[in-house]
Amino acid sequence: MSRRILAAVATALLMAACATPSTDYASFVNPKIGTGGHGHVFVGANVPFGLVQLGPTSIPQQWDWCSGYHDSDSTIIGFSHTHLSGTGIGDLFDITLMPVTGQVEPSRGSEDVPGSGAWSYGDRSREVARPGYYSIPLERYGILAELTATSRCGLHRYTFPQSDEAAVIIDLENGGCWDDATDTGFELERDADGQISAVSGYRFSTGWARNQKIFFRAEFSEPLADFVVNENPRQESQRGIARKALYGRCVLAPKAEGQQLLVKVGLSPVSVEGAKANLEAELPGWDFEAVEADARKAWNEELGKVRIKTADADSRTIFYTALYHTMVAPSVFDDVNGDYRGSDDVVRPGSFRNYTTFSLWDTYRAAMPLMTLIHPEKMDDIVATMYHIYKEQGDLPVWHLMGNETDCMVGNPGSVVFADAVVKGFRAGLSDEQIMDALVSTAEQEDRGLDLRRRYGYIPADLYRESVATDMEYCIADAALAQAATVLGYEDVAEAYREHSHDWTNFWDPELQFLRGRKVDGSFTEPFDPIYSRHETSDYTEGTGWQYLWLVPQDVDLLVSLFGSREATLAKLDGLFEAPDHIEGENASPDISGLIGQYAHGNEPGHHTLYLYAMLGRSDKGADLIRRVYREMYTTAPDGLAGNEDVGQMSAWYVLSSLGFYQSEPAVPRFWIGAPLWDKASVKVEGGTLEISARGLSEKNCHVKEVRLNGQPWDKPYLEYSDLRKGGKVEFIMGE
Questions:
Q1: Which of 700, 25, 16, 593 minimizes the C-alpha distance to 304?
Q2: Domain count, the chain
Q3: Residues 244 and 386 in one domain
Q4: Distance from the CA of 493 to the CA of which of 18, 239, 467, 598 falls in 20 to 30 A?
Q5: Is 306 helix (H, G, I), strand (E, B) or coil?
Q6: 155: nearest Cα among 240, 220, 111
Q7: Residues 341 and 379 in one domain
Q8: In this structure, are 248 and 313 located in the same domain?
Q9: pTM (2 decimals)?
């Protein structure tokens, strides 16, 4: 047997030893990473990309409780079926159930007033959180609550102490942070004996999602003894929104010590009938262990798409937790029969799987490119969803939540994701004309600063806040549009938008060599401090002049020409990491975090910046900084993320980067080589398996010296998506 064959056999055996079909990847996940600091991650039971995120909701309604959970707080008002993960704004927490004993006040309550409301402390010392399962004892009631989930349904199991006054409260009032219920309602269903066998209803609310509608059906493993409705006496919210907010007390028969109750809840964005159908399809029985096993199997199938070899257990935990976080959203947003509620509040039958929770300003940078690599089977549905959003609301999504356009953040990030998918061949059966219509119509809107951009050639700082950031994001979207137009053969359109993508140069100050806000009269805004931030009212979005100087991944060569040379550009880039590591300004954006100098890894606009070194011919410098980010910005602690997790983006950066590459340019299907972290990895892709190795990798040998693709020398500083999606072998030869 030749040495080459022996080596191949050894490699195969090694990979098999580190990752077999029976490997429990879910056991490598620590859902508590990101629950401290400003991570804002969801903790609870769900399945990959499911509508239901079933978990505990705490009393506080502050910024660091956007997910309903924070490591510092053990209060629980109940177990809600929808949560966000990693966002900087709060919403959802719909359809909250709380098991209780005794008579309790139907309200959120306050930690400062013992006995108020139905809330309880959870015993964090006995809390269990793992993919597809969550449990915690409720100290006030002596009840053990256990949760698991399917895509559209939640299953609760409550173990009671002895009690003659056991009940489950269904809370339709409380929502996430800035959410207010506007209308709620219950319907009861009785069996042939007249006993209550199911409770259905709805919760309509306004908040970040301005017109949210969710319907539910709850079934119980025993008939209810009674059902009592309590209407919150406060008929007007703090924001002056008239509402009807109901609580339902599901009265149970007396409970013996250790007696269990199961409750299964189906959700639907369409109707109560849809919720019932979803429940019948996904959760027909009462076997809690079987449902949890199915949820864990679903997680293992998705997590097992990427298999890494490492001797570092903490790094393995960080990686698989990151991969787990990339699969909380986008979330399914339709019924099992395909019906969905559109952006125009019209219910339609769908020939595709409809999705929601598109944090696109964040996720266009890494999370969505990662999806094109490891979840290609979902991309046509994503494209179809985005196209139908365009048809319903007139433009591609910006930040879409539960069928609502929030218009959160700046630019046209939906165009970037849509164009990137199209360039990579995901077109959902759309014609070239339909694709271009969606992209061009979105670019030609008259709101969100686009009218000013056309009138003046740039967005003036004295007419529009965050003008520099907004315009620069539009430039990125224009570049993505141009890429798609070229691929589809619309070269005239491509040329026009390629030209628009250079408009950021209107902000160039040749004297200070920064991009600065410019007024209507052409003068720069004063004073200027490149480390200054004022949240939501400066020229930059959650950033500083130092950070936004580099937000031109589509135009690196043009940036070099402005600096005068590649060497001068590299010197300025070095200055970013050498600048003071603090932010000036009394109301500086809290999102600017994870600082190395002025580089802020805790927020998205800089995530490509480390790869500019590779684009400028100094990948060695970039690799050193990337490895520093691995060490300092990702840990196994509750505050183990440098900033908001942002619906998978912070984690996707780590997943892609640790594999050794990252897509930096909008809708340009190539991944720049950086700093592989694993001795070996395998990725399940559309065409088979992509095997990645870093030969000779050590703390000392941490730079890529040579690359081989399928055994052949590869001399480019990036890898093509077209090669990666086929599978094959990428070998990084490492050195000092």
A1: 25
A2: 2
A3: no
A4: 467
A5: strand
A6: 220
A7: yes
A8: no
A9: 0.95
